[in-house]
């Protein structure tokens, strides 16, 4: 397959009035697939299994399967919208409902990004920078996140494209050389909780849905190979397998694990000869977390840009929040505790609402491109394709 | 935003990203600055603890640490010294801090592979015992958990025949089964997983020290004070008082609840023939049906030798060998029944029967229902050609 690098020049759609803007947010589906692997999975395979198990017991894996199904639904809506070209047309029309939806998405991504940042700080301080003042961790982590977030989608996508193969190899090697006592029966019973309780507790983890919403503001160009389907399949299979193995390894001790991906790497066949290889997983987790956080930052800024016409205030606000929030909180654990309260229901409802709304806008775009609509607007049919 | 200000913003952004190497340089300088100002201790300032012993009295913990200290010699030669320090503290961390002060070195548990715990320690909740050691002192979750009825400090300080430190012997004994029949490694992670399960019980290797009748002799003469660490029994930990499983029971119980078990079976037939088998593999299967559990244990062994025969050639398919295998299976069956009787007597579900019932019944299972579970078992011993 011929591969070409995507530049702002060759990414634009000829004849489009929004060519410059599109160029900055254009990416190939192969890059989007890499982003799904790096950004869509990292927070689901780090702290989340332990948090979920504290509430869901042996239903953890089954809740994961349910939430993965919901997240794939959200992802399908995102990809459908981002590859339909609807965003460009809607930006041109700039209607109030569209701007309101963008504002909502921007706020949603900003809140998620801030909480995810606190998560990252917590697991870095527990697993890596033990005994280091929090401000050092916050400043060092914030610098690349803000840099990549300001630089934009293409910078993030290129980083993901370069690093994802390495990270995939490390993660697969961790599983391949895993040596520990596994009891997959710890994922049973399926009915550890009554059905009502299952959903009441499980939907509190709704904040982890919609990690790829920033791509709503991207313009995805398709290649022949179905990268999106394969990338999504591999990524979510990894999430499911990680959860399955985590419960099989730790059982009810899982809530004491802050970052399962890092702990998994400690149990390898060569731990007595060459050490526990935690560093490999730490590299993967930090890189993936940075890419995800910067993608959230970019997404929040793009959403705000569609409302206010500029992304600068959103970028500044996001940068300030991620630096100030973890330092201002007397106990960073509070942010984590808050994320699994009723706040989770709100985030779950918002995720589904945003995904389905943008999906509906795809049809609106189709309708807008239909002959009756164009005739009504006085456009000769066949000339007004690019809105 | 008008055209001019947009152009200015774009130019500033361009200029900012053209200076990315400056940004990288600043980041490197920041890292170097924090690296220099952060207290990174060298190896000679640390005491690498390779074994940790813990005892508990009513209001305090007695912590013993077997540490390796590295001292630099002339010409770059380093010498390693193994020393055991013991201190008391209201918490484990206080005990470790006092050891640090006493040694004048910073205690690090990141290389600690063996924990020797006195039975009194298990009156504390298991998570409260291990979580601080893992999260605050970097204790590896792969560390082996063992128990002793003697002083843990004595076990750590014991001079054994072939290794420089007792913990190396304990570690290799549990991994390579040099310690006793059917004993298996219980890591910190496995200990917590079992203790926090529905059954809430686990059996761990119990270490005894035996004075050697004959001290090892070398060209320099007879060695003095060399002791033997014996690991043939298990200590059962549960909510109640810990109790000891004697050799045969420990072997049968371990085969039923662990995945990797080695050791030997030594049946003696009523007709006087004595056989010796090496255990190759044990495949346990527990099936729950309502409130009854059937345990099926398949043990694969290889024949080592048969004594007291009439001189006929003995092969794995010989009648004597088959009868010996049946006898071994019968003995294991009896041991399992004895284990079940003990578990009922002590209300300690170390055969994990409640876990099996829970997998089938889910949230409707009554808590603490060991008395109500009926138990049956069948054991087959298969003699394989190779081994």
Explained architecture:
The complex is a heterodimer of chains A (387) and B (387). Chain A has 387 residues and is mainly α. Chain A has a single domain, classed as Up-down Bundle (Amino acid/polyamine transporter I), CATH 1.20.1740.10. In chain A, 68% of the residues lie in helices and 2% in strands. In chain A, helix 6 runs antiparallel to helix 13, helix 6 crosses helix 15 and helix 11 runs antiparallel to helix 13. The longest helix of chain A is centred in the first third of the chain and has 32 residues. In chain B, strand 5, helix 4 and strand 6 form a beta-alpha-beta unit. In chain B, the strands form 3 sheets. In chain B, strands 1, 2, 3, 4, 5, 6, 7, 10 and 11 form a 9-stranded mixed β-sheet that branches. A 4-stranded mixed β-sheet of chain B has the order 12-13-14-15. Chain B folds into 2 domains: 204 residues, no CATH class; 132 residues, GMP Synthetase, Chain A, domain 3 (2-Layer Sandwich), CATH 3.30.300. Chain B has 387 residues and is of the alpha/beta class. In chain B, helix 8 crosses helix 9. Chain B starts with a helix and ends with a strand.
Shape of chain A: globular
Helix proportion range of chain B: 25-40%
Largest sheet: number of strands, sense, barrel closure of chain B: 9 strands, mixed
The number of E-state strands of chain A comes to 2
Head-to-tail CA distance between termini of chain B: 81 Å
Order of SSEs of chain B: HHEEEHEEHEHHHEEEEEHEEEHHE
């Amino acid at each position: 397959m011929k591969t070409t690098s995507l530049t702002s020049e060759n990414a634009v759609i000829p004849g489009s009035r929004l060519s410059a803007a599109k160029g900055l947010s254009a990416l190939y589906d192969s890059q989007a697939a890499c982003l799904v692997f790096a950004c869509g999975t990292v927070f689901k395979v780090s702290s989340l299994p332990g948090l979920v198990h504290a509430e869901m017991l042996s239903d953890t894996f089954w809740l994961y399967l349910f939430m993965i199904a919901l997240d794939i639904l959200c992802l399908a809506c995102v990809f459908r919208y981002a590859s339909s070209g609807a965003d460009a047309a809607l930006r041109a029309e700039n209607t109030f409902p569209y701007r309101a939806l963008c504002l909502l998405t921007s706020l949603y991504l900003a809140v998620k990004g801030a909480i995810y940042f606190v998560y990252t700080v917590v697991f870095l301080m527990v697993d890596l920078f033990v005994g280091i003042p929090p401000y050092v961790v916050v400043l060092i982590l914030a610098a690349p996140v803000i840099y990549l977030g300001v630089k934009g989608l293409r910078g993030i996508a290129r980083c993901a494209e370069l690093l994802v193969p390495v990270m995939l190899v490390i993660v697969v090697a961790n599983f391949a050389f895993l040596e520990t006592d596994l009891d997959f029966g710890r994922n049973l019973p399926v009915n550890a909780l009554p059905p009502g309780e299952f959903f009441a507790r499980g939907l509190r983890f709704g904040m982890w849905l919609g990690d790829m919403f920033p791509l709503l503001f991207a313009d995805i160009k398709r290649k022949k190979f179905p990268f999106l389907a394969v990338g999504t399949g591999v990524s979510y299979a990894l999430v499911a397998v990680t959860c399955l193995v985590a419960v099989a390894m730790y059982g009810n001790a899982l809530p004491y694990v802050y970052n399962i991906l890092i702990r998994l790497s400690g149990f390898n066949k060569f731990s007595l000869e060459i050490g526990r290889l935690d560093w490999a997983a730490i590299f993967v987790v930090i890189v993936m977390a940075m890419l995800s956080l910067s993608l959230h930052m970019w997404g929040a800024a793009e959403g705000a840009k569609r409302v206010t016409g500029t992304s600068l205030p959103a970028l500044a606000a996001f940068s300030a929040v991620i630096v100030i929030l973890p330092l201002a909180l007397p106990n960073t654990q509070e942010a984590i505790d808050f994320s699994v309260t009723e706040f989770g229901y709100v985030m779950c409802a918002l995720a589904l609402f945003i995904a389905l709304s943008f999906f509906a806008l795809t049809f609106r775009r189709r309708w807008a491109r239909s002959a009756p609509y164009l005739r009504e607007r006085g456009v000769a049919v066949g000339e007004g394709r690019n809105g | 935003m008008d055209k001019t200000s947009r152009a200015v913003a774009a130019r500033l952004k361009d200029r900012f990203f053209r200076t990315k190497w400056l940004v990288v340089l600043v980041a490197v300088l920041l890292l170097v600055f924090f690296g220099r100002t952060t207290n990174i201790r060298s190896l000679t300032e640390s005491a690498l603890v390779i074994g940790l012993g813990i005892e508990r009295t009513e209001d305090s913990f007695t912590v013993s640490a077997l540490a390796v200290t590295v001292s630099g010699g002339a010409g770059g030669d380093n010498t390693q010294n193994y020393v055991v320090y013991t201190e008391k503290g209201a918490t484990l961390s206080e005990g470790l801090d006092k050891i640090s002060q006493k040694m004048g070195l910073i205690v690090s548990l990141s290389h600690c592979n063996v924990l020797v715990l006195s039975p009194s320690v298990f009156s504390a909740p298991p998570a409260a015992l291990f979580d601080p050691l893992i999260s605050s002192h970097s204790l590896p979750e792969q560390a082996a958990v063992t128990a002793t009825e003697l002083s843990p400090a004595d076990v750590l300080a014991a001079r054994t025949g072939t290794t420089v430190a007792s913990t190396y012997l304990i570690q290799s004994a549990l991994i390579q089964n040099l310690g006793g029949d059917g004993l298996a490694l219980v890591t910190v992670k496995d200990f917590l997983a079992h203790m926090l399960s529905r059954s809430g019980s686990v059996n761990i290797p119990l270490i005894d020290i035996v004075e050697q009748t004959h001290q090892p002799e070398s060209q320099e003469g007879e060695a003095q004070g060399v002791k033997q660490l014996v690991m043939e029994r298990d200590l059962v930990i549960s909510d109640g008082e810990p109790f000891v499983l004697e050799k045969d029971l420990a072997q049968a119980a371990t085969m039923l609840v662990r995945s990797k078990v080695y050791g030997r079976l030594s049946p003696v037939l009523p007709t006087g023939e004595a056989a010796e088998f090496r255990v190759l593999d044990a495949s346990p299967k527990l099936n729950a049906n309502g409130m009854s559990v059937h345990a099926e244990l398949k043990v694969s062994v290889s024949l080592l030798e048969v004594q007291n025969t009439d001189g006929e050639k003995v092969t794995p398919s010989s009648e004597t060998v088959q009868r010996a295998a049946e006898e071994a299976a019968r003995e294991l069956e009896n041991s399992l029944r004895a284990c079940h009787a003990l578990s009922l007597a002590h209300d300690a579900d170390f055969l994990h029967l409640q876990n099996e019932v829970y997998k089938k019944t889910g949230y409707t299972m009554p808590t603490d229902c060991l008395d109500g579970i009926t138990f049956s078992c069948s054991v087959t011993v298969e003699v394989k050609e190779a081994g």
